[in-house]
Each structure stands twice: as structure tokens, then as C-alpha cells.
């Protein structure tokens, strides 16, 4: 879908992303890099339908007669609809030449994360005036081992039902601006049939592969 935005707000976010100053090796830094402006120039220029139509005029309808016009552009990936459940997939496997290897670096992630610096200024399901889009961590998938062999385990938080999340999933209603603390509950580590209660500190020190957050605000 192609839409025309006011150039003044096309690259604006709900909260000022430049105030973040994200720490290297954190999930905030990953999101900041993923949503950074990218200039499209030279061989990456964007095919512009408006420029092409302007150049060829209204009578040039036959494709073979058209000269397609490409122009410099700026590309940015931002969130336009805040999801009820946020799933973040960390790229743990990378190609080095002809070989694949696993990235074992620890990535810091919080119990509560604010997506506002990565959402468009006109995010569709955020109430007007809100400058926070908060999510609480409730699940982590961890991979141990190498590319040749390994094991997946999970951390999950047992908590009470989140009625506001149900409203958001079923009826699309934005949650009220109230709690900003993590959803209370007990963390468990699950490895095959073995389940063990663990602390939040243990969860936050894990080598996360997948992160699952539920929307608070």
C-alpha cells in the first residue's frame, strides 16, 4: 500500500528516538539500528511513479514507450500498528564466508520496553497524546550449543489473566494509561519435561533467541 504523508511528519516517531542513546549490545540498540534512516541512491534509487508519469506525459500508455524514472529517497522501517503481543527475533545465526556460525553475544533486554521511539507519530492504535507504548516481558526462548548441535529451552512467566490484553486482541481497544510496571508473576525455566522456578535476574541474563512481550500501555 502506497500512501502520501506530510514530509514534516513522515519520519517522526511518538517519542524522540534521539533521546534514547541506546547502550551497545542491548535490544534498544538493535531496534534503533533496525529502524534507522536509510538513504537510497545510485543503484538503490526508488522507482517513482509520479516522476515517471510527469516525464512521459498522460498519453504514454504503452509500457515499451515509457521511460521509468528513478529518484533518490529515504527509507525507514517504523511500527504503524502496535501489536497486542510483541515478538522479537534476534538473529543468532550468521554467515561467515561459506560457513555458518552462531552469535553467542549476550543482548541485554528489559522486563518493560517502550516502543514509542520506534512507532510512527500516527500509530493507529495509540491514543492521542500518548508518548509511551509499553510492553511487559512474559516469555523467552534460549538456544544453547552450536550450529551442529544444540538445545532449545524456554522461560515463561506464570501470571494472572490480563483483561486489557484480551480486550486489545479481541476488540482492538487500546489499554488505559495506568500501570507501567511489569506484570507480576513467577518465572519458570522449561527444558523438555523439566520445569524449575527461577528469578527474573536469571531470565534477564539468558542468551535470548526469541522475546515475547504483552502490551501494557
TrEMBL record:
GO MF annotation list: cysteine-type deubiquitinase activity
GO annotation (BP), single: protein deubiquitination
PROSITE patterns noted in UniProt: USP_2, USP_3
Alphabetized UniProt keyword annotations: Hydrolase
Pfam families linked: UCH
Gene3D superfamilies reported for this sequence: Cysteine proteinases
SUPFAM superfamilies: Cysteine proteinases (SSF54001)
GO cellular component, as recorded: cytosol; nucleus
Domain USP: from-to ranges: 1-216
Protein name: UBP16 hydrolase
This protein's encoding gene: Usp16_1
Amino acid at each position: 500500500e502506497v500512501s502520501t504523508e506530510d514530509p514534516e511528519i513522515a519520519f517522526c516517531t511518538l517519542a524522540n528516538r534521539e533521546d534514547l542513546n541506546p547502550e551497545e549490545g542491548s535490544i534498544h540498540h538493535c531496534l534503533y539500528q533496525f529502524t534507522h534512516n536509510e538513504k537510497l541512491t545510485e543503484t538503490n534509487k526508488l522507482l517513482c511513479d509520479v516522476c515517471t508519469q510527469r516525464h512521459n506525459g498522460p498519453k504514454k500508455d504503452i509500457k515499451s514507450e515509457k521511460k521509468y524514472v528513478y529518484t533518490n529517497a529515504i527509507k525507514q522501517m517504523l511500527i504503524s500498528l502496535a501489536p497486542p503481543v510483541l515478538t522479537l527475533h534476534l538473529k543468532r545465526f550468521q554467515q561467515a564466508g561459506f560457513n555458518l556460525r552462531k552469535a553467542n553475544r549476550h543482548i541485554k533486554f528489559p522486563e518493560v520496553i517502550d516502543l514509542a521511539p520506534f512507532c510512527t507519530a500516527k500509530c493507529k492504535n495509540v491514543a492521542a497524546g500518548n508518548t509511551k507504548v509499553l510492553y511487559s516481558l512474559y516469555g523467552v526462548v534460549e538456544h544453547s550449543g552450536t550450529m551442529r548441535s544444540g538445545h532449545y529451552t524456554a522461560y515463561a512467566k506464570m501470571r494472572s489473566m490480563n483483561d486489557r490484553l484480551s480486550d486489545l486482541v479481541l476488540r482492538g481497544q487500546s489499554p488505559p494509561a495506568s500501570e507501567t510496571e511489569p506484570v507480576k508473576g513467577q518465572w519458570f525455566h522449561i527444558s523438555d519435561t523439566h520445569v524449575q522456578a527461577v528469578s527474573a535476574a536469571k531470565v534477564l541474563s539468558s542468551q535470548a533467541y526469541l522475546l515475547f512481550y504483552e502490551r501494557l500501555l
